[in-house]
Amino acid sequence: MALDKPYLDIPGTTVFDTDQAAAGYALNQFCRSLMDADNRERFHADERAYLDEWPMSEDQKLGVIARDLNGLITLGGNIYFLAKIGASDGQSYLQIVSSMTENDAAGHAEMMLNGGRSPDGNRYLHEWKDRT
């Protein structure tokens, strides 16, 4: 029996649930491996060879190479694991998360310090359809 997942209806949001966790297990374990300096060195020496050691999908591997964190989230990546890719590249967490927005790091920091994103437009899709 399929579970009802009303949260799948939130525009621009991928909820990390059990299905996402299962889809991204190998991807997230790869990211976790980057906590070890020897693994980071191996990864940066030959990214593709290191990625091929992991049972990830081709789309996940290409997403890592492209540093497409938004795409990797849709493929089961968890931001707290995905951040290890950016950290292994020498990026701060601010730089990593701002790369997922239209802002640069300074613009993202300013937006967050001034109250964050406006909630306007953050509605379930069905709420917009129900409006007349």
Structural topology:
Blueprint: H1 18-23, H2 25-33, H3 37-45, H4 47-51, H5 58-66, H6 69-74, H7 79-88, H8 93-98, H9 105-113, H10 125-130
Describe the structure.
By secondary structure, this protein is an all-alpha fold. The chain has a domain at 16-100: Protocatechuate 4,5-dioxygenase, Chain A (Orthogonal Bundle). The chain is built from ten helices and no strands. The radius of gyration is 17 Å and the shape is flat. The termini are far apart. The model has no long low-confidence stretch (mean pLDDT 85).
- CATH architecture of one domain, by name, is Orthogonal Bundle
Model regions low in confidence, pLDDT < 50 over at least 5 residues:
none
The total of beta strands comes to 0
Mean pLDDT: 85
Per CATH, the class of one domain reads Mainly Alpha
- Tell me the name of the CATH homologous superfamily of one domain: Dioxygenase LigAB, LigA subunit
CATH topology of one domain: Protocatechuate 4,5-dioxygenase, Chain A
Largest sheet report: none
Strand content: under 5%
Distance between the termini: 34 Å
Radius of gyration computed on alpha carbons: 17 Å
Output the number of helix runs.
10
What global shape is seen? flat
Helix content: 55-70%
**N-to-C SSE string, H for helix and E for strand:** HHHHHHHHHH
Structural category is mainly alpha
Short structural description:
With 132 residues, the chain is mainly alpha-helical.
List keywords for this structure.
single chain, 132 residues, mainly alpha, Protocatechuate 4,5-dioxygenase, Chain A, 57% helix, 0% strand
